[in-house]
Specification:
- This protein is mostly helical.
- The protein folds into 2 domains: 2-85; 89-138, no CATH class.
- Helix content is 67%, strand content 11%.
- It contains 4 helices and 3 strands, in the order ααααβββ.
- The protein has a 3-stranded antiparallel sheet with strand order 1-2-3, with helices on one face.
- Strand 2 (118-124) and strand 3 form a beta hairpin.
- The chain is rod-shaped, with a radius of gyration of 43 Å.
- Residues 109-144 are annotated as: Disordered.
Length: 144
């Protein structure tokens, strides 16, 4: 058995021989040229994808900044809305709507009526009987 193993190791090519034979086969079949063409094509595609990724990243950063700005605007508007909600009395709003509806359909509501911190005055337009101007003056210190 020892002689068989020695005989097998003698017939097994070395690593350098395998590399040399592989290079000969590559040259014989023109694979070097094919490999160069494939490498060139893949490199080109890789550069194009890298550029596209950079563009998308830039667009993402721009959109992220816009979203943050919009979020700040929304917070500001929510705060302003909360402040306004504190100043608005729902019964007063309902009374105003009722007054406007009555004036639009030709029925007269109470002129100069005072409802919870607001005063109303209405004037008939001389050009049109169906249009009235209603002024609302706030008596609270709420923002306009």
């Amino acid at each position: 058995m020892v002689t068989d193993q020695n005989h097998l190791s003698d017939s097994t090519p070395t690593e350098q021989e395998v590399i040399r034979y592989t290079k000969i086969l590559v040259q014989a079949f023109g694979l070097d040229k094919q490999n160069a063409e494939v490498y060139s094509a893949l490199s080109s595609e890789n550069r194009a994808l890298k550029k596209q990724l950079e563009d998308y990243h830039s667009q993402y950063n721009t959109l992220e900044k816009r979203v943050k700005k919009l979020e700040r605007s929304v917070k500001s508007l929510e705060t302003e809305l909360e402040d306004l909600d504190e100043c608005v009395d729902s019964k007063t709003v309902v009374d105003l709507i009722h007054e406007i509806v009555l004036s639009l359909i030709g029925k007269k509501g109470p002129k100069g009526a005072v409802h919870k911190g607001f005063s109303y005055s209405s004037e008939s337009s001389e050009d049109s009987d169906s249009v009235e101007i209603i002024e609302v003056r706030e008596k609270k210190g709420c923002p306009s």
